[in-house]
Amino acid sequence: MRAGSLVILPTETVYGLAADAANPAAVAAIYEAKGRPRFNPLISHVADLATAERLAVFDDRARKLATAFWPGPLTLVLPIAADTAVCDLARAGLETVAIRVPAHPLARQLLARFGGPVVAPSANRSGRPSPTTYADAMDETGDKAAAGLDGGPCAVGLESTVVALLDQPRLLRPGSVTRAEIEAVVGRLAEAEDDAKRSPGRLARHYSPEAPVRLNVGAPEAGEAYLAFGPTTATGNVLNLSASGDLREAAANLFAYLRAADRTKPAAIAVAPIPTQGLGEAINDRLIRAAGFVG
Ligand code: TXA
Ligand code: MG
């Protein structure tokens, strides 16, 4: 990574494709490898809050959220520090920077030894489901990486929650740290009223398998793969996100099961209704985008 190479990096959320955030050539190689539009900024990952405070301006709210949830699946969007090491390209030219301290032990070791900020977008090619296993990450962008760390299957399985602290606290991307958990620390969250502008990565069609995705399906049609949730009478090409109806288990399985269903080349992937409370907000957000429904 110090030489500008890309590395497959496990985190507790999803696998990332990592590079030195201070090296514009390395960052350019990340956009290239993912086929990612350059207006979509990257998250800088660091080992701890002290390192993060050299990159961005933390107010009280930011420090409270960092203390409550780091290391862990929360990303904070903050104003840059005057001498931030995160290069312009990593921020897509914005005066703000997205930062997180991941919890996965291998990610923590790498970040501690590297010292500086590391960009790590999800290791999928742009628009595809995020990889939650080493094999899926290698499949997506492994050919672009000089090395990879196999950290096993990702425990969380959904990307981090993204919260902007620029004016009022704003939820830019729901994730496994829930709205209620954030609001318990900083009060009511404003919505990202202009989705595409506030968090440029939130494109309509995203996280998408090859097959079309149909949501809120009680009973799949012939030829469809079915992702069930809770008890089901469906038979055939069926994977159950969580037979017991546990949202954490469903989140951890979501992207891997979308990929597994897709490999069976179904007419469509039908997905059972998933409750919208708590972690269900993030699961439904990803599903709606996988189906290409957000305009
Ligand atoms: O869980 C995660 O966050 C994973 C793992 C690997 O850490 N990473 C990840 O990165 O999901 P990526 O690049 O796929 O998503 C980053 C999101 C995008 O929606 C992007 O638009 C948003 O964060 N973002 C980054 N910098 C931003 C900024 N300055 N302002 C607003 N949104 C920003
Ligand atoms: Mg992504």
Automatic annotation (TrEMBL):
Pfam families: Sua5_C, Sua5_yciO_yrdC. Its EC number is 2.7.7.87. It is found in: Cytoplasm. PROSITE patterns: YRDC. It catalyses: L-threonine + hydrogencarbonate + ATP = L-threonylcarbamoyladenylate + diphosphate + H2O. GO terms for molecular function: L-threonylcarbamoyladenylate synthase. InterPro entries: DHBP_synth_RibB-like_a/b_dom, Sua5-like_dom, Sua5/YwlC_C, Sua5_C, T(6)A37_SUA5, TC-AMP_synthase_SUA5. Coiled coil: none annotated. It is an enzyme of class 2 (transferase). Residues 1-177 form the YrdC-like domain. Keywords: ATP-binding, Cytoplasm, Nucleotide-binding, Nucleotidyltransferase, Transferase, tRNA processing. The keyword Cell wall biogenesis/degradation does not apply. Its main location: cytoplasm. The keyword Nucleotide-binding applies. Belongs to the SUA5 family. Required for the formation of a threonylcarbamoyl group on adenosine at position 37 (t(6)A37) in tRNAs that read codons beginning with adenine. This is Threonylcarbamoyl-AMP synthase. It comes from Phenylobacterium ferrooxidans.
